[in-house]
Amino acid sequence: MTRNDTLSVLLALALLGGCTVGPEYRGASPSALKVPAQFRSAAVVPTAAVDLARWWTGFGDPVLTGLVEQSLAQNLDVDAAGARLRQARASVATARSAQLPTLGASASVGRSIGNSGRSIFDPTTGTTLSTGGDTTVYRAGFDAAYEVDLFGGIRRSVEAARADEGAALANLQSAQQTVASEVGLNYVAARLAQRRLRIARDNLASQDETVQIVGWRVQAGLVSSLDLEQARQLRAQTAATIPALENNYANAANRIAVLLGEAPGAVDAVLAPDSAIPLAPPANDIPGAVIQRRPDVAAAERSLAAETARIGVQQAELYPALRLTGSFAGSDTNVGDVVSRAIGNVLGAVSAPIFQGGRLRAAVEGQRASTDAALANYRQVVLTALEEVENALSALSTSERREREILVAETASRNAVLYARSQYRAGLIDFQTLLDSERSLLSSQDNRATARADRATATVQLYKALGGGWQSAPLPASATRNGTIAVLPDPATRP
């Protein structure tokens, strides 16, 4: 092949640089993802104007608002997700660098001693330098290399890296959404434990009074000791619930502290004053908007896009590759003449796979399988998102109905206890009837608190399921930090 033929082949290969192998990514349609037009439970929940971006403000509880916003600024899972986003952005820069030529330079100074009248051959430039006596030789060089992206393998790599960056951003948003909802759920759990503790302690005080009254009646010979033992039994059962409720409160408070990036106990002072379980208006939405808003769905979709692009990366390995290299180097005993005595060369090299034992095609097939798995995962995430909304809507509706009925039961139980106590003092009923009425009151009060907490919990879960909570969250410092590494001190060196 002549020199002109070689240049023609290289030119033809270079012109193929606009060719990109691999499938073009197309987002799945709502019908393909089986997204319905509306939720099945939507009709039972009234629509309310709720700011999903900051849904916690709808509860009207300053303590809850402060805790959620503090968690979004300090949570360590969010901080880690921000660092992974920064890592993904660095990977994009790395992938894009392959589209540019690489350049390098070198320089050296050599000293020849005692070579009078001799000549030195310089292999770098292919020239012979005449020297006399002690001689200093200066050398300088410049080289460049560039891989022509003939079939779009590099472009597909950049496309995949950008999709991975989008997935990392969505994962950060998902972490923010999860942290906000976890703080809300544990806040409701802490307030529920406080409320149940107050109910138990109030009933314990009432039962202490009952034990005292029965004791007097036993001493007076009006009733048997059986009544006293039954009163003591009910009092002990009520007292036994208090340690478990205190543990529930401690667990919720400790969890909130950790979500805020603090040690357990950090929020005890904030939660110490008892407060009612807060409620917020429910919200409603259409499935399509939910799918577009939820970051976990976006992360799955971006992961699918990345896997699709990597099919093209693997397919490009099946085709020839063109690499262009060039160098420019010179040497002389006079530093000012190094450039003028320099020579250069350009080389184009073409490589192509001929026999790889099926390895390259197997890699393409493996990547197609990985893409199919990503598609299945994407569809599953969408269906799970729809399921979570339906479940939250159903839980909210049922908790509201249950709370209404329990309120009636609590009122009736409270009245029944008043009547039973007065009638027992008058000797009109036996003690067992009084005990049954007190047990019923305690159960009704406890159930009402639980039903209210269930309603608040379902509201938080609904806000999360609808994709709210990350839109107003600040970008963590770990996502933008440059040149700084936070290292904990060695415990052995701490003062």
Structure description:
It contains ten helices and six strands, in the order αααββββαααααββαα. The chain is of the alpha+beta class and 495 residues long. The strands form two sheets. A four-stranded antiparallel sheet has the order 1-4-5-6, covered by helices on one side. Strands 2-3 form a two-stranded antiparallel sheet. Helix 4 (153-219) runs antiparallel to helix 5. Helix content is 58%, strand content 11%. It has a domain at 26-98 and 176-298 and 359-485: Outer membrane efflux proteins (OEP), CATH 1.20.1600.10.
Largest sheet: 4 strands, antiparallel
User: What class, by secondary structure content?
Assistant: alpha+beta
Taken in chain order, the helices and strands follow as: HHHEEEEHHHHHEEHH
Q: Uncertain spans, ≥5 residues at pLDDT below 50?
A: 483-495
Q: Total number of helical segments?
A: 10
Percentage of residues in strands:
5-15%
How many strands in all? 6
Distance between the termini: 76 Å
Mean pLDDT: 84
What CATH calls the topology of one domain is Outer membrane efflux proteins (OEP)
Fourth-tier CATH superfamily name of one domain: Outer membrane efflux proteins (OEP)
Rg estimate, integer Å:
38 Å
Reading side by side through the largest sheet, how are the strands ordered?
1-4-5-6
Helix content: 55-70%
The gross shape turns out to be elongated
Question: Per CATH, which architecture of one domain?
Answer: Up-down Bundle
Q: Return the CATH class of one domain.
A: Mainly Alpha
